[in-house]
């Protein structure tokens, strides 16, 4: 996998491809081979593709990012992943899976305490605007086209159920959107919380400029990304647009200004300077809203920049090396645990060994997992340190004999060389 990625590395990959003189069809095959290896490593590392339901759930609420952020899909390639998913079917993929794919592993929790004055005002205006649309039956004019799937109700998803390793983990979402409008909540400090993806990896390719064939594949690794702020990891983000609060302020100021202006003009003796003053005030207030929005956008862009600095773990080759190291460690740990159980408890069937390994992990580390017993047994058989009796039960050779069979490790050889 690392050798293949060297051909598609955003830094030096183009030069290596040029040196190899591959045909376009050969490059297509190589990049699909890389994706096959990459997805296999992600599966071995217990990363899951963020599916459509999780995306809908993430978009059903807000956390710290209150400005709408979208991806400029015109800057992303849609051929690389489309071809892969056409040959390797996956269920419930999100709409953007032809342009970029998001992997996640682990569920955590993020809490933030603050006054959130501007966010609370925005929430109140948004609620009032929503009720106004409902009362006037104008909601259909502003609502998006209905999807084929039922829309997730954000009010009913304050308890997030995420299935991990066949076990359900419930994380309560505490958000301003569902907060009670009490005096203490409006004017006091409140704490909001959101489930996080402990690790997130994003893979995508930028669209090639005209006349060029950019084959670079970008891989980025993040940590502790709140679900509702998943926009943080999106590639090629567009600048945010106005919030409901900005639109309401703008519309109300324009309406009030126009009403005042018309009333002044209808007077028998309309004062020219009064009209100029009204127009100037209206223009000044609109300019204030615009520049306030620009300031808010700059603030949130700084938040995104800081979040990227704090939350981005690695990218490109560094991410792949981290994944490979994770897989190797996991494979070794599986073998050690399986051998330890056989050494301590004696002969066992595959099912018994599987159960005993899971119980050991639960007792010693407090973790529930689905132990891949057959994978561990196959590795132990290849090493030659286990055998089977006449009825198929698995048993291990003594520890000293197992060490002799495996031989010295690379680390042991290095230590001996240093000592000599």
TrEMBL record:
The chain crosses the membrane at residues 247-265, 272-293. Keywords: Membrane, Transmembrane, Transmembrane helix. Pfam families: DUF3754. InterPro entries: DUF3754 (IPR022227). It comes from the Eukaryota. PANTHER family: AMINOPEPTIDASE (DUF3754), OS01G0929000 PROTEIN. This is Aminopeptidase.
